[in-house]
Amino acid sequence: MTEMHYLTSAVYETLRLFPPVQFDSKFALNDDVLPDGTIVRKGDRVTYHPYAMGRMESIWGPDRLEFRPERWLNDDGLFVPRSPYEYPVFQGGSRVCLGKEMAIVEMKTVILAVIRRFNVRVADPGHEPRFSPGLTATVSGGLRMVVEEVVKR
């Protein structure tokens, strides 16, 4: 499972564009200054938005809206993670998700199990999925799929 660099990249790219938690907040335990110079006082609430950050040209470049797993691969085809502060899907620093690695393995396991047995495609390729505002990811109106079992010969 650790050698599947392109699959890992596809999972990260999917989560970049469609993070399971669209926005999150933290409260400052002490006075602090953010990297851009913003002063944060003890008790202040700081909210960040992984959904918006995953679409920022200053972080991801002019092709930021394209699904492009290759952006996570180096010249040798090996997966290279980005800073958790640019890609906060699993948070960062002392608050990084303890289940991150297990979640990635679980996603890859499910993906492999599905693509081995089924052909899966979007029912309406012209339909653009739209997130609905909320703490956790919800696609407005769902995303209709066609799932066909692969015929073994």
Automatic annotation (TrEMBL):
Pfam families: p450. SUPFAM superfamilies: Cytochrome P450 (SSF48264). One of its GO terms (molecular function) is monooxygenase activity. Heme binds at C97. InterPro entries: Cyt_P450 (IPR001128), Cyt_P450_E_grp-IV (IPR002403), Cyt_P450_sf (IPR036396). It comes from the Eukaryota. Its cofactor is heme. The keyword Ribonucleoprotein does not apply. Keywords: Heme, Iron, Metal-binding, Monooxygenase, Oxidoreductase. The keyword Oxidoreductase applies. PANTHER family: CYTOCHROME P450. Belongs to the cytochrome P450 family. This is Cytochrome P450. It comes from Linum tenue. The lineage of its organism: Eukaryota, Viridiplantae, Streptophyta, Embryophyta, Tracheophyta.
